[in-house]
Every structure is written in C-alpha cells, then in structure tokens.
Amino acid sequence: ILFALCKKSKKFKDDFIKAYNAKFSSKIKEGDFGLLEPKFTYEFILNNHSNLLKNAKAYVTLEPCSHHGKTPPCANLLKELGFSEVIIGSHDENKIASGGGNLIQSAGVKVKFGVLKERCDKLLEPFLAYQNGGFSFLKIALSKNGVASGGIITNELSRTHVHKLRSVIDTLVIGGNTVRTDRPRLDTRLIKNGKNPDVIIYSRSDKFDETLPLFSVPDRKVSIQKELDLKGFCMFEGAGEFLKLAKEGKLANVKWLLIYQSSNFKIGENLSLDLNLKPLFSGNFGDDSYGWFEILD
C-alpha cells in the first residue's frame, strides 16, 4: 500500500520520507524503504492517504488480519482507504487474526476468496511455519561445477545477500566440521548496522579452539548442541552435511533450500548426493544465480 501511494503521488512520497526521517533520525529515500517501523507507517497512511487509492483493487496472498498486533488491523486499513474490491488467495486459519475478509465485506467492499489458493498456500508455508513455532532453511553455495567447500565461492553481491539474511534470522546453525575446517566468522560485516545472529554448532564434541573467529563476534551467544533445539527463524550454513540429514528426515520441518551458484569453476570436492528438489523461485546477483527449492521426500 505504501509503495502504491508513493507511486500515485509525489507529494505523499515526499511527505512520508520527510516525516519518517524526522521521527526516527533516519535517512530513508525512495526505493530504499527497507524494514520500516510498522505502527508509524500504518498511522501515516491512515491519516494522509487523501483517497488516492479509492475504488482501487487489492490483491493479497493471505486474508487481511482483524486483530491489533504491531499495528491495528490490516482489514481496517483496506476499509478506510476505500478499496472497491479485495481479492484474497488464502484464508487465515489463525483464530486470533482471522475474520478480516468478513470485516471488509461488512463495510460494502467486494471480496473474493480462494483465488490461486494452492499457489498462495505454497507461498505462505514459511510464514505459517514461523507462526507455528519456527521457520528453518538450509543455505549452500556452489561453484558452477558443484564444489561446495574451500573458501569463498560466490561473488560479493551474493555474499552481501547472505549477510542480510544473517541480520534478520535469530539463529545460524553450522556443523562442527565446517567450523574446524573453515574457521568462519559468520558475521554481517558486508552490510551497515547488521545484527550478528546467535550461533549453534551442531557437534558431538564440545571441544573447539576458543580463538575461532565466530567466538569473538560481539553481541552473540554461541552454543554447542548434539541434539538440535531450534526456535524462531533459523538458517543452516555449510549445508552439505545437513542436506544428508534433511534427506533422511532427521531435521524436523526443515524442507527449504536456498542455493547460490557461482558462474565460475573451482577446484575441490564436488557435492555428491541424491536429492529431489522442487524449484520455487530463482534470480541473479550479477553473474551468480540463486534459487529457492523445496526438498521433496
């Protein structure tokens, strides 16, 4: 909604950027909004929309919420902005948040449910997993010829994206062998004001060299676990060893894989594993490619 309003009116866009920067002493600019403070953004839209989106149509994957969380109800915002129709992919099964569609409908807005439902359900799987206790995924970097080890593999754009992911996850999980061999730092140094995630080292042995770089990163907790206890938003790095566990069903509810692939060949050991994957999304970071996959049984 914010991007639609900014595209519709230069005055709205300029007023929002000015007000947000003044409120939070920040320096956001057009096209670089990032993660905004939700309550302020909601209230600014509500008080300054000037009916710019009146009679517009809204397409949403998940039924707009009807409860007060970090912001007032999304359904109420759609109602107040004067949308003529809201097309919804998936019903919200959360008893606390559901009912937004009916709320909008009661205000005279036309509502369609179940449009592209199966595809929306698939898109929402990570969000729903997170809502139900946690979302975990595997990340791996590969050379063009399938090498997954031996130092830096991908370009700086890909590595910067990984650092952005590290900044928003709660926990990074890495295998003990990878820690001992690669001596990684696992921080967010490639981005500004990044948050360094806590680290779980998955290992049968709790003996590690205390001079390893990951132990000296500030504002971080490091734990060594033989049996994984995962909560929140977690990313598995150095995923070659974890892929085998996922294939064997030993990583409960971990069925998403993010692959970064360099355009270059590299000398080293190739990743060798029979694994069935379903492509979900793909893109590029310069000459590198990346893709999200679902791990199939």
Structure commentary:
The protein is built from 9 helices and 11 strands. It has helices at residues 2-8, 10-24, 38-48, 74-80, 100-106, 117-131, 156-168, 176-182, 240-247; strands at residues 57-62, 85-90, 110-112, 134-142, 171-175, 198-202, 222-225, 232-237, 256-261, 277-285, 288-295. It is of the alpha/beta class. The two termini are 38 Å apart. The mean pLDDT is 92. Strand 10 (277-285) and strand 11 form a beta hairpin. It is 30% helix and 23% strand. It has 2 domains: 2-116, Cytidine Deaminase, domain 2; 133-295, Dihydrofolate Reductase, subunit A. It is globular, with a radius of gyration of 22 Å. An 8-stranded mixed sheet has the order 7-6-5-8-4-9-11-10, with helices on both faces. It has a 3-stranded parallel sheet with strand order 1-2-3. 27% of the residues are buried. Helix 1 crosses helix 2 and helix 4 (74-80) runs parallel beside helix 5 (100-106).
Helix and strand layout, with pairings?
Elements: H1 2-8, H2 10-24, H3 38-48, E1 57-62, H4 74-80, E2 85-90, H5 100-106, E3 110-112, H6 117-131, E4 134-142, H7 156-168, E5 171-175, H8 176-182, E6 198-202, E7 222-225, E8 232-237, H9 240-247, E9 256-261, E10 277-285, E11 288-295
Parallel strand pairs: 1-2, 2-3, 4-8, 4-9, 5-6, 5-8, 6-7
Antiparallel strand pairs: 9-11, 10-11
Helix pairs in contact: 1-2, 4-5
Question: Helical residue percent?
Answer: 25-40%
CATH topological fold name of the largest domain: Dihydrofolate Reductase, subunit A
Q: Provide the gyration radius in Å.
A: 22 Å
Widest sheet, order of strands: 7-6-5-8-4-9-11-10
Which superfamily, in CATH terms, is the homologous superfamily of the largest domain? Dihydrofolate Reductase, subunit A
CATH architecture of the largest domain: 3-Layer(aba) Sandwich
Global shape:
globular
Distance between the first and last residues' Cα: 38 Å
- What is the number of domains? 2
Number of DSSP strand runs: 11
Strand content: 15-25%
Mean pLDDT: 92
Number of helices: 9
The CATH C-level class name of the largest domain: Alpha Beta
Largest sheet: 8 strands, mixed
Helix-strand category = alpha/beta
Give me the strand/helix succession.
Answer: HHHEHEHEHEHEHEEEHEEE
In terms of per-residue confidence, which ranges show pLDDT below 50 for 5 or more consecutive residues?
A: none
